[in-house]
Amino acid sequence: MARLDVNRSGEMEVFSRVVELGGFSAAARDFRMTPSAVSKLVARLERRLGVRLINRSTRKLQLTPEGVAFHDRAMRILSDLETAEREAASGSAPRGRLRVNCNIAFGLHYLLPLVPDFLARHPDISVDVTLTDAVVDLLEERADVAIRVGPLRESSLLARKLGETRNLTVASPDYLRRHGEPKNPADLMKHNRLGFCFIRLIEGWPFLDETGQVIYVPPLGNALVSDGEAMRALALAGLGIARLGEFHLRQDIKAGRLVPVLEEFNPGDTDPIHAIFVGQGGHLPSRVRAFLDFLVERVRV
User: Fold this and answer.
1) What is the mean pLDDT of residues 80-100?
2) Which end of the chain is flanked by fewer CB atoms within 10 Å, N or C?
3) pTM for the predicted model, two decimal places
């Protein structure tokens, strides 16, 4: 029989998080422990089992064959424990702190206006919202959900699609009065094309040429910005031509503050919008599941 003073599920959870995050320091931050405490806990587990689970000889931790087998079994056991707890508490309302990381434009135009309704529906949940267009590591940032616009990179994270947005090329009426409206993609070379100061998967604006083939025009101008809302602001100020998702621009176009250009050359490309989250063993905390279901129900892009 196991000794009562050995928290075997706790040891499994810490060990699994070390493996998942790739180091003792990252796991320590996640558990709000010191790296030495995490290291000692894993060493104690190895002594109790009588085997080495992790080779520490290199800067990157490597699992031993015994470590691989133990990690696989530990993940199944932890999943079963979470399932048992979830089933036992199935009658209780979702509760706890929900950490959400969202890109700036979607956050301002869609997420933040929905937060009051979500909290009214789930009064036992509190929400921490961070708006940034920087690509973040959910595990490092300890975020429950990240909302991102654009193609998903290869990842072990899970995702739910919330919609997609068509991309438009726009300028302010004032800019077009001063510089003229481009009649074809080649005319853009004479215009100030606003760009981003971070690396994107596609390094140019796509347009159709006279043969129907897609060509790319590099966004080269006298201003680079860190996010879509900053680019929208510069376009509204008449600095240049911008290319953004329609969800950024819908109200500005409706009000006449921005005007679509070169629509006949628009290839109709769209960017998907996803809620990205961590899911272990198919289990999600009830607060995360409630938030994802709410977004799918309420977001209309």
Assistant:
1) 72
2) N
3) 0.64
Q: What length does the chain have?
A: 301
Label the pairing between strands 96-102 and 145-149: parallel
User: Tell me, which fold does domain 96-163+272-298 have in CATH?
Assistant: D-Maltodextrin-Binding Protein; domain 2 (3.40.190)
CATH of 8-88, one of 3.40.50.1980, 3.20.20.190, 3.40.1190.20, 1.10.10.10: 1.10.10.10
Q: Are 193 and 223 in contact (CB under 8 A)?
A: no
> Helix or strand or coil: residue 264?
helix
Alpha-carbon dihedral angle through residues 46, 47, 48, 53, given to the nearest 10 degrees: 10
Q: DSSP secondary-structure letter at 110?
A: I
d(CA 235, CA 241): 6
Classify domain 165-270 at the CATH topology level: D-Maltodextrin-Binding Protein; domain 2 (3.40.190)
- 111-147 tens-digit pLDDT: 999 999 999 999 999 999 999 877 666 655 678 899 9
Dump pLDDT digits (tens) for 146-186.
Answer: 998 888 775 667 889 999 999 999 999 999 999 999 999 99
Higher pLDDT, 58 or 296: 296
Q: How far is CA 235 from the centre of its chain?
A: 26
